[in-house]
Amino acid sequence: MSRTRFWLVCTAVVAVLGGLVAVAYFTPLMAVRTIAVSGVTATSGLSDDQIRQQAQIPSGRPLLQINTAQAASRVAAISAVESARVRRKYPSTIEVIVVERMPVVRVETERATTVLDRLGVGYRHYDRGTAVPADVRRLPQLDTPNVGPTDPATTAALHIVVELPDDLRASIATVRAQSPVDIAFILRNGTTVVFGDGTRVGDKAIAWRAITTRKGTLYNVSSPDLPSYR
Fold first, then answer.
1. Are 113 and 210 found together in one domain?
2. Residue of 222, 218, 209, 172 whose CA lies nearest to 191
3. Are residues 63 and 144 in the same domain?
4. Do both 127 and 213 map to the same domain?
5. In angstroms, rounded to a whole number, what is the distance separating the alpha carbons of residues 65 and 196?
6. CA nearest 50: which of 70, 78, 83?
7. Domain hosting residue 73, numbered range
8. Residue 51 forms part of a structural domain
9. What is the mean pLDDT of the segment spanning 131-146?
10. Whole-prediction pTM value?
11. How is the beta sheet containing 182-187 ordered, strand by strand?
12. Which helix (H) or strand (E) holds 71?
C-alpha cells in the first residue's frame, strides 16, 4: 500500500469514527429511554423512584451527555445510601447501582435514637416522643464515650458486631466500648461477655458459644484459647 493510500484510509477511518461519536453525542439514536436501578431493598425505606428522582437524569438526552459522576454523587447524598455508581448501558439505558447503609447498632441520647451503619455513620434519627420501629429497637445499643465514624472505639466495636455470626449478634442488648481494646457485650439474658479487641473474631465467637453453655454471669473470651467465666 502506498503512503498516500495509507493516509487516505486513516483519514476515512477517523472520519467514520468521528461521525459515529457525533451521532452518539448529538442525536437521539442513543438517548436515555430507561433508568434502571439495582441494590434497593424493601427494608431500607428507599424506592427505585426516589433514586431516579435524586439522580436527575433527563429522559431523551444522549447517553454521552450524561455526567455519570455527578448523578452518582447526587444519589450518594441520600442519607440511607452508602455509595452509588452510575453507568451507561448502550443503546439507551442508564443504570444506577446503589449500596444501602445497613443498620448495625443504635445510639440512645436524651434527645433521640440514632441508627449507625457499619462505618459509624448515623443515618436514621428518631426524636424523643416519636415512634421507633421494632427493627430499630431490636438493634444492639452502643455505649461509648465519643461515638462517631472517626472514633477508634466506635469503629472497632462496629467491626466486631458486623463480623459476629447472626445468632450471637442477635443475643446482644448493649455493646460497651470503652476503648478499641476494651469491648464487652451485655446480652439480653443479663450476662456479660468480655471480648477485648477486634482481633480473632471468629475464634472468639467459637469460644463464646462454648463457654456460655456453663452457668455464670461474666464470660471472658478476650483470649479465645483460654476463655474464662464466673
1. yes
2. 218
3. no
4. yes
5. 53
6. 78
7. 31-100
8. yes
9. 96
10. 0.82
11. 122-127, 112-116, 105-108, 141-143, 172-179, 182-187, 192-196, 218-220, 228-229
12. helix 68-76
